[in-house]
Design brief:
It comes from Sphagnum troendelagicum. The chain has about 425 residues and is an alpha/beta fold. It contains 14 helices and 11 strands. The strands form 2 sheets. The protein has a 9-stranded mixed beta sheet with strand order 1-2-4-3-5-6-9-10-11, sandwiched between helices. It has a two-stranded antiparallel sheet with strand order 7-8.
Amino acid sequence: MRFVRTQRVSAVAKHVSSMGSKSSAKNEMELAEGKKQSMFAALQNFMRWIPTSRKDIIASEQRLLTLIKTPYQQEQINIGSGPPGSKLRWFRSTSSEPRFINTITFEKNSGAAAEAEVVEEEEVPTLVLVHGYGASQGFFFRNFDALATKFRVLAIDQLGWGASSRPDFTCKSTEETESWFIDSLEEWRKAKNLDNFILLGHSLGGYIAARYALKHPEHVKHLILVGPAGFSAESDRWIELKSTWKGVLANFIWESNVTPQAVIRGLGPFGPNLVRRYAGARFGTHASGTMLNEQESKLFSDYMFHTLAARASGELCLKYIFSLGAFARSPLLTSAPDWKVPTSFIYGVEDWMDFRGAEEARKRMNVPCEIIRVPQGGHFVMLDNAPGFDAAVTYACRNYLPGRSGFNLTGGISLV
C-alpha cells in the first residue's frame, strides 16, 4: 500500500512538474511573441514618426519670421466648414468642424524706406500672396520687408497646407479640386472683407490665382502670376515618353498620388536631414542667385520640414489638376480669351516653367498683359533673387502706386 501510495505521489509530482514546464514554456513563448509584436509596433511607429503638428508649424514659422524687421500679425481666419449653400464640407467630409486659413498681415511700413511717401491708408494697395505646391507663405520671407514698404501685404497658407486646416482630401475630379482652393480662398476674402486687391500666385498658386480671377474678377484689380503652372498641355514629346517603360512606371506612380511629402513622412526621423540637405543644395550651393546664409538656411529648412511632414491634405491635389510633367488637365490657355483682369507674368530667367506659354496666352487675351523676366532666378525666383523679384512686383503694380511714372526696370530685369 505504501509502495502504491508512493507511486501515486510520484506520478502526481511528475504531472505537476510537467504542467509547470509546459506553463513556463507557454509563458516564455507568449513573452517572446509579445516582444516580437512590441518590436514590430516600434518599427511601425518609427516609420510613421511625424514630429510635427499645427502648433509646431506655427512655432517654426515664428522662428523664421524673426528674420523680418516689419511688424506683422498672425491670424487663423475661420472660413466655416464648407462653401455656403453646399452640402459638401471641403468636400465630401461629413465633419461640420470649421476650417481655418493661416494668415500673415504686414501693414504698409512707411518708415522702412527713406523714399517712402506719406500716403492715405485707403490709397495703399493690398497685395495677397498665394504660395505654390509643396510650399507655404513662409517661402516669401525674403520679400516681406521690401514689399511692405509699398503695399499692405497678406500672405496665406492655402487650405490643406502650412498651418492652415488640413481636412481629409476627398476630391475626385479636376473641377472639385479647383473648387477646393478657389472657394476656400473666396471664403477667406469674405472673412477679411477684402476687395479690389492685387492677387499674386506662384507656381500652383499661380494656377489657383488665375482660376480665382476668372471666377471672381470683380474682386481682383491686377493679377501677378509668378512661374505659373497650367499654361500648357501635354506635348507630343511627353506623350511619346509616357509610352516607354520608364514613362509607364513614372505615370503609374503619379496616378497613384505618391507625393514627395509621403516620402518625407515615411523616412521618419531621417526626414529632417533630407529636407536640410535639399534646402542647402537648392537654395545654397546650387542656388540660381543669392544663397541663403547659415541662419536663413537653418530656420527655413526647419520650417520646410514641419510644413511638409504634417498630415496629408492639400498635397493630394496634384494628380487631379496636372498630369505627369505638371501639364494642366484643364490648360489655362483655353480660358485666355475670357480673361477680365490685367495680368503680369514674372519668370526667373532659369525657371523650368516655360514663359512661352505666357506668350501664347497673351496673344489670346483681351486685357493688358506683360511678361517680366528676372535674372539670377529659377522657379523660386522670390528666394533666388529677392531684390529682382521685389522690383518686378513693384513694376507690375506701378499703376496703383504713388509716382506712377517713376518705376523703371533695372538690374537686368526685362520685358518680353
